[in-house]
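R.M. (postdoc): so does anyone remember the format we settled on? I'll just put the structure tokens first.
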């Protein structure tokens, strides 16, 4: 298994891009800021752009419990998996530049 990390900003950007066929086994979004944020997550087929047709989560609120002690939301954990083909991606944006993403994946 491998791990990718990314900063999620107010502009939609890649959190993870599949190289070959992969299975995402864990994905979390962590709000490190002092205020609540909302996040959008897209699962984008290779060659497509993030838009309304591939929205996976919209307006996900990730709370903050204090200065630099925000909350974490797990999208995939336990036995769940998201299967991606070569060039497919997970893209995200948030209402503030205080969100980090961690993705764990394995080749299949």
């Amino acid at each position: 298994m491998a791990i990718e990390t990314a900063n999620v900003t107010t502009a939609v950007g890649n959190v993870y891009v599949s190289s070959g066929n992969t299975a995402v086994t864990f994905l979390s979004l962590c709000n490190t800021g002092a205020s609540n944020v909302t996040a959008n997550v897209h699962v984008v087929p290779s060659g497509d752009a993030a838009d309304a047709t591939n929205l996976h989560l919209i307006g996900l609120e990730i709370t903050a419990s204090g200065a630099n002690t925000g909350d974490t939301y797990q999208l995939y954990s336990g036995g769940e998996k998201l299967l991606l083909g070569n060039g497919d991606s997970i893209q995200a944006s948030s209402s503030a530049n205080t969100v980090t993403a961690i993705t764990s994946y394995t080749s299949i």
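R.M.: ...and that's the designed sequence above, right after the tokens. Also worth knowing: The two ends are 10 Å apart (CA to CA). Residues 32 and 70 are 5 Å apart (CA to CA).
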